[in-house]
Design goal:
CSC1 protein; 4 strands; mainly alpha; 4% strand
């Protein structure tokens, strides 16, 4: 009525599916366990299992863990979870959220609506209809929709004031914890108080004594950003692209302060940095000599850091020791053989572009910052970039499952790299002021160049923000089967056009599986599919059921490739 020239082809409302998706994942696991033990009981008879999570760790008989019939246990658990799932699914219409996905006939209509609603910020009301006062359309926020596979459906229920309160509190706690208490320099200084590094220094080996402090800084700088990384999951972002982008920015600026700024200034934490910045009497009391900041030894420290990151850091990414520890813990706490097989098949994760971009930009910034005052760091920076490129390419191809994110994430990473030349000019200016004096022509020229870099970077950033946002261009393609676990299957929506923007858990029919013999599907990033011949008789049942489950899911999950790129509002 308000826009007679625009034709709406589809409207999909959003619902709070957080609990429903959790029940669906648990129901599928219980169903797989029942099917596994049903087949195994036909060959071996009644099977007893211990259902306590710690039963595999404390496996002695004196621990008192009760044994139950495996088939009966998983059958009752599946029935209970199915009843809860169906009840929650029947109540889902009562949990409708105040957002919807609207599909228009063509791109021009979408642009007209978006342009009209973009004027609300300028206190200009959009076109009105007879129900405008009822639905309060002048208060609506309208934007282009992301790709369906990019949406985290379970997080859509966290919005408005609750989301901002959660976001602000989490980041305040993170700021206090990381910057004031647990910077790597503080940890290393604490270790020196207990003479932890004294046995290493007593070796009098120049290779060990030179690289051991650098190795400690690298180890702690690897561990601490993971706190920043995991905090992004608690913030409940609506899309994976925004989650990765915010993680990238937070980790990058944290690493820049932790690896470049604080060690270069000889400060141990941001507490000292802010006191030096704002306290006028701090320099009178503290023993900080800035003439020692830009000595050659300081550059040698960062050369060692880049070499350590190139050789040890990239090798650790190939070993994936944190992932191995998580995988081992999940196997230890699995209650039965079907759950262990499920852990083996669902241990692959998406490639974390945000964290990897932050690391790459940080090392590039280190190399760029000291490229003039310490040129020897440049070849080692090139070595890091080559090794990092090969390792990431291998991991993306063969280790992690396919990741589809918005191109804005990659554009933001390119814009973030502009911090590196600005830091380089800052360091060159500090070097000139301390060594040559503030009135020398070289110092004044460096200051003018630095000011020009900052102005042009800020101007370019403002131009990008003022440009109208373009719609997301994507084509839906068939998802690769066997590469997602149950929770991820519930999050990804890749269905025909009428059901594009609906969580998969709301559109799949009930699955009734029967035992069928089919080979297990091998996909990149999965483990446990190559079994010994002696174990084939025991584990083949569950593998065939999982393969059939994935095949049935794929029929409802995969749609035809769209012939033309669509724009959704």
């Amino acid at each position: 009525e308000a826009y007679p020239s625009c034709t709406v082809t589809n409207v999909q409302f959003c619902f709070d599916v957080r609990k429903l998706m959790k029940l669906d994942a648990e129901r599928r696991k219980a169903m797989k366990g029942r099917l596994y033990f049903t087949t195994k009981a036909q060959k071996e008879g009644k099977i007893m299992i211990k259902t306590h999570p710690c039963a595999r760790i404390f496996c002695c008989r004196f621990c008192g863990f009760e044994q139950v019939d495996a088939e009966q246990y998983y059958g009752e658990l599946e029935e209970k979870l199915t009843d809860e799932f169906n009840a929650e699914r029947n109540r889902i219409t009562l949990k409708r959220l105040d957002m919807a996905f609207v599909t228009f006939q063509d791109e021009r209509m979408t642009a007209v609506i978006l342009k009209d609603y973009s004027h609300i910020r300028c206190r200009k009301h959009p076109q009105q209809s007879s129900v405008t006062t009822v639905v309060k359309s002048h208060h609506w926020g309208v934007c282009y929709a992301p790709a369906p596979s990019d949406i985290i459906w379970e997080n859509l229920s966290v919005r408005g004031t609750s989301w901002w309160v959660r976001f602000i509190l989490l980041n305040i706690c993170l700021f206090v914890l990381l910057f004031f208490l647990t910077t790597p320099a503080i940890i290393v200084n604490t270790m020196d108080m207990f003479n932890v590094t004294q046995p290493v220094e007593s070796l009098k080996n120049p290779i060990i004594t030179q690289f051991f402090p650098t190795l400690l800084l690298w180890a702690f700088s690897v561990f601490l950003p993971f706190l920043v990384y995991y905090s992004a999951f608690l913030e409940s972002h609506w899309t994976r692209s925004s989650e990765n982008q915010l993680t990238m920015h937070k980790c990058f600026f944290f690493l820049v302060f932790m690896v470049i700024i604080l060690p270069s200034l000889g400060l141990s934490s941001l507490d000292l940095f802010f006191r030096w910045l704002f306290d006028t009497h701090f320099l009178d009391e503290a023993n900080i000599k800035f003439q020692c900041v830009f000595l050659p030894d300081n550059g040698a420290f960062f050369v060692n850091y880049v070499v350590t990151s190139s050789l040890i850091g990239t090798a650790m990414e190939l070993l994936r020791i944190p992932g191995l520890l998580v995988y081992t813990a999940r196997l230890c706490f699995a209650k039965s053989e079907p759950e262990r097989l499920h852990v083996k098949r669902s241990q692959a994760y998406q490639f974390q572009f945000g964290l990897e971009y932050a690391w790459t930009c940080c090392i590039f910034s280190v190399v760029m910052t000291y490229s003039i005052t310490c040129p020897i760091i440049v070849p080692f920076g090139l070595l890091y970039m080559l090794l990092k490129h090969m390792v990431d390419r291998y991991n993306i191809y063969y280790v992690y499952i396919p990741t589809k994110l918005s191109q804005r994430l990659h554009v933001a990473a390119i814009s973030q790299v502009m911090v590196a030349p600005i830091l380089c000019m800052f360091w060159l200016l500090f070097f000139s002021v301390l060594r040559l004096g503030p009135t020398r022509p070289v110092t004044l020229f460096t200051f003018v160049v630095l000011l020009s870099c900052i102005i042009f970077s800020f101007f370019g950033l403002c131009l990008k923000k003022l440009q109208p946002r373009k719609p997301s261009s994507y084509q839906m393609s068939d998802q690769s089967e066997g590469a997602f676990n149950d929770v991820e299957r519930s999050s990804v929506s890749s269905t025909p056009n009428s059901n594009l923007f609906v969580a998969t858990v709301l559109q799949e029919p009930e699955l009734s599986l029967t035992p069928a013999a089919s080979p297990a599907h091998q996909s990149y990033g999965t483990m446990g599919n190559h079994l010994e011949p002696a174990e084939d008789g025991e584990d083949g049942g569950l593998q065939s059921f999982e393969t059939e489950l994935e095949t049935v899911e794929g029929e409802y999950r995969s749609g035809p490739v769209m012939e033309s790129q669509a724009r959704y509002q």
